[in-house]
Each structure stands twice: as structure tokens, then as C-alpha cells.
Amino acid sequence: MTVLLEGKEKLKILYGRYGTYISPVLKFLLALLIFISINRQLGYLAPLNNIFVVLVLALICSIIPLNGIAVFGGLLIIGHCFGLSIAAGVLALVLFVIIEILYLRFVQGDSLALVLMPVASSFGLPCAVPVGFGLMRGPLSAISVSCGVAVYYFMEVVKENAAALQSADSAAALENLQLLLNGFVNNREMLMVMIASVTVTLVVSVVRRLSVDYSWHIAIVLGAVTYVVIMIAGGMFVEIDSNIPVLIVGAVISCVISLILEFFVYHVDYSRTEHLQYEDDEYYYYVKAVPKISITKPQREITTIRADGEELAEREARSAASHAAAAEEPDYENVDFESKLEESLKNLQK
Amino acid sequence: MLNEERIRMMTRLARYESKDGKQALKISRYYRHDYLGLALLKNFFLVTIGYLLVLAMIAGYFLDFLLDHVQELSIGALLTGSAAGYAAVLVLYTVITYVVCSVRYARARKSVKSYYGKLGELSRLYAREEKKLGRRLGRRNRDDSFAGR
Fold this sequence. Notes:
A: mainly alpha; two-stranded antiparallel ribbon; 14 helices; 2 strands
């Protein structure tokens, strides 16, 4: 654990020193991951499905605020949908505009959920996003996460109907639109995942604020368990094909990712918790103070250790030198100051 | 000479201006009722567009049904229902926008107030420094004139 804490402190110092460069690099990597994942899932528009275009977009995202990743991610999805068919493109555009107008304009900080959820779901870790947003943001993030789920399942519907959409002529745009809308609205799995994600976000954000020891750990585990339980129960009642081992492995990995997040954001030492009580004119205060775990960087002191003989010789040399210096000093006691003064006065008069 | 305290304060203020305070300073330029009025007006147009899009999506979903029963459907009832839905959504979003923007405005005013307080402190630091510098320069001039330089 000490090694991890030392590593964390080193990272903190490194970030403090080179934060100006590290922050854009991290944003670039996140944007790259998201854009590559979107291209891997859709990739119908050839000019966008190009690594150089993705690199340029990620580079732009590295110098603009984090919400820029969501904007470019959304544009990428819309572009690919237009590449497949006009109906899919229009529907994607309408979906993003509705989400932005009716919800995201009130919570700008949550827009990343729209593109993070499809990425996490494509890696089989859909549980990581609601748990993460529950830890880092508030209960309102549940809506953002469910919007992300809607975007992911819209992409899935487009992917499933890609062959039909591609082969149909442009006159059948209305039919395509209906095909996509039917697939999107009647998607039971999407509704199940939405319910699970909303519940997980609420559970995690409520539990982590509780005044109990290890509240963040409890919140993470409870969130993952809630997700698995809801999905398994949903699979039984709503007849969804849920692969239980994959679900459990995904939840475990999500737990690990969330614990890493917790290590960097909220790492406290519950063994040194202090309970204080005091009062003022109006209130009684019952305070629980939990110290943060921090480790100071070890200060290195260099001491030179020599053999005894050498040290003795050095000491002798030093004392001999001081004796010589004393010998060179003039003998002030035997100087006749009066005669010297007279001499100098005579010299002045001359 | 460099004043460390003043530099620290200026850095903090510059950081506020470029990060957290950017939005707050923009909001605090308005009077409260102007800011809220503008937000509500913007909300009206956005909700109208959003509602029309949702309505279009619903119509697209039920397109077959609508085309099959176009003769039996009462256009008046449909329009009334849509208008009622629109009114309900608009009222809901107006309330949400009003609450959110009021909170934003109050927060912005509070943070800008503290920012102006710090600016005042900075200006006092400058004044004090100038006074000190002036006194020193005055003494030097007095000494020079006494020495006949």
C-alpha cells in the first residue's frame, strides 16, 4: 500500500509540475479512445473512418474543454449515420438535438456520459459509467447516464439494420425511419439497462454520502451488485438474453476501475477517525473527522562514513593547520604602540 | 521591487477570470430580471423546437396507424391534445429554467462580489505601495535639495 501511496504522491507532483502538458495528453487519449470505439461500431462514412481524421479530431479535443469530446463524438455518430442512410442520419441528429435541448443544457458537465456510455458498453463494462458518475457527480447524473444508454442502443439498432438501410433506395427513407424508430422504441433491453443504470447511479450517489466507514467502497460494490441483480431479474421477467458470466465479469472489472478512481479522488484512513462534539449559542455539533491518507516524500540525507584511521588522520591534519595559523599571527603583546604612533605622526608632519 | 503578496493575489484573480469566473462575470453583467427574462425567452424557443421534434418522432413511430386511420381521426382533437401537451411541457421547462437560472445568478453574484472584494484589496495594496514609494522619493528629494544637488 505504501508503494501505491508513494506512486500517487509522485504522480501528484508530476502533474503539478507538468500539468499543462499532461492534461491535454490525457484529453487526447480519452478522445482517441472514444472516437476509435465509435468508428469501430459504426464506421459507415469512409472519410470519418480514417485514423488521420480521428487523430486530428482528438488533437482538437485536447485543447478545448472536456465537453468538446462529447460534441465531436456526437457529430461523428451523426456523420456515420448519414453515411449509412438519410433516415438514420436525421434520426441521430434529432436524438442528439432533443437530448441537448431538453436536458443537457441544464447540466453541461454531464455531456461526456453520452459518449462514454457507448464506449463502456462496447467493452462490456456498462456498469462502470453509472458507478463512476454516481461517485463523481450527483443523483441528477442518472438522467445523463440514461441518455448515454439511449445513444448506445440507437447505435446498436442502426448496426443491426445496416444491411436493410444500405440496400434501400432513397425513396424508402420514411420506411427506414419507421424501421429504426420501431427498433429503438420497442427495445426492451434498452429500457432494462436504463432502469439498471438510473438505479445504480442513485444508489451509488446516495450511499457514498452516508456517514459510515468505507462508504465509497460500499457504494461501489452495492452499485455493481444492484446492476447485476436488476439485469438478471430483468432477463427473467422481460425475456432478454443476458449472458450472466459476462455480466458478472463486467461488473467486477467496473468495480476495479471505480476503486482506482476512488484511490485517486477519495482516499481516507478510517482507522484514525475522530469524533468531536462541541456547541455554540445555537447548535450542538457532532463532527466526524476522517483524515486523508497522504505520505510525505522521503527526504534523503547524504552522510559520508569513513574508516576510523582516515578520520583520525584528517582530524590531526586539521589541528596541525590551526596550530600553523596561530604561529603565523603577530605577537601583539610585545609591540610598543606609543613609539609606533610617534613615528607615524612624524611621518605625517613631514 | 516585487511584492510577493500582490503577485499571489493577482495570480488568484487572473485564474478566477479565466476559469470559474468567466461565466459568473458574464452573468453578473445583467440585472437579475434581464438575465432571467433572456433565459426564459431562449427556453421558449428551445422548448418549442424540442417539442416539435418529439412530436415528429411520435408521428413517425405511429405513421402507419395515422395513414390508415386518417379519415377517422379528429384533427381538432389531435391539435388540442398537442397544444395541451405543449403547454404542459412549456410550463414545466419554464419553472425548471427559472429555478436553475435564479440559482446560477445568485451564485454568480456571490462569487463576483468576493472577486470585487479581492480587487479592492489589491488596489489598496497598490495604494499603500505607492504611498510608501512616494514617501521614500520625497525624502530623497528633500535630502538632495538640502545637499544643494
